[in-house]
Amino acid sequence: MTQLKQRKLLSQRHPILYFLAVWTRRFKRMLEWNFDSKKYAKIKKSEKLSIRIKKHQSVLLRKLGDNNEQLQLNKVTNLKIAAKQLNGILIKPGETFSFCKLVGLPTKRKGYLLGMELSFGEARAGIGGGICQISNMIHWLVMHSPLIIIEKSNHSFDPFPDEGRVLPFGSGAAIFYNYIDFQFTNNTEDTFQINLWFTEKHLEGELRVNKDLDFSYHIFEKNHQFIKIENQYFRQNEIWRNCIQKKNGNIVKTEMLKNNFAKVTYEPENYIEQ
After folding, report:
1. Is residue 235 part of a domain?
2. Does any domain span residue 6?
3. pTM of whole model > 0.70?
């Protein structure tokens, strides 16, 4: 059986080494942004493209365990700052969307506050914490399109029980500037656009395209369960997608997009013991 207890990395035990490790990775990513062959999306347009592919909304303030309510309020501020860098972005044919490149490094100088972030197996406060709510939303929108996801990371653990969750577990996209990025590429001949806005209680988002597509997409979950192994809890599921021909409603392709398996830091109500 695989050893479940993970030893801390050397960089986790020594703050200076952690700092150096982070900035080494960040420098490497900056070199990639400047010298790789990708053409990154950077043009924004206030006028919306004609066809909406998918719309979604997520709750701004959620009860997450016993965490500081102020971190939740700060998260809303962080979301609004980050959303300004993304709202209206066009992804033209041949272009790649990079969340971290567009949003940049969250800093106090830019107005970012302490929000909740997930790191090293725990939820803790960090500058700009919570903006992954936007990357989660964009990922969900992109899954309903022919855009190709080329880089995405999941959170390595599940910290809170479901409360108001409407999307399948593991359908988000973790972000940590800049080496944990969310990227997708437009290999079609069409231009796509992401729009983000806020209501009193929700972050709203949509994916648009310049002309109607021949196919639609349906995302669904399979084989979801909690498992207990050696006094630790884990959660697993599969995320699948149907590609549907609009003119006749026929399913032309069914594919598994993700097989998730993550540690759970709470005790679920129902689980299978192994």
Report:
1. yes
2. no
3. yes
Q: How far apart are the C-alpha atoms of 213 and 243, rounded to whole Å?
A: 12
- Total structural domains in the chain? 1
Which is nearest to 139 in space by CA: 129, 130, 128, 152?
152
In a domain, 4, yes or no: no
Tell which residue, 179, 268, 188, 174, has the closest CA to residue 228.
268
How many other β-carbons are positioned within 10 Å of the β-carbon of residue 140?
21
Q: What angle do CA 59, 127, 24 make, to 5 degrees?
A: 120
Contacts of 221 (CB under 8 A, 6+ apart): 168, 169, 237, 238, 239, 240
pLDDT of 50 > 90? The answer is yes
Angle between helix axes 69-86 and 132-142 (nearest 10 degrees) is 50
C-alpha separations of 138 from 169, 208, 251 in Å: 15, 12, 24
Any bridge partners for residue 121, and if so which? none
Summarize pLDDT for 186-208 with one digit per residue, the tens. Answer: 999 999 999 999 999 999 999 99
Contact 168, 237 (CB under 8 A): yes
Pair of tokens at residue 234? 């884990």
Residue 1 lies in a domain: no
What are the C-alpha distances in Å from 250 to residues 88, 211, 214, 242, 256?
32, 21, 12, 10, 18
Which range marks the domain in which residue 182 is found? 12-273
Helix (H) or strand (E) holding 86: helix 69-86
219: three-class secondary structure by DSSP: strand
Are residues 140 and 194 in contact, defined by beta-carbon separation less than 8 angstroms? no
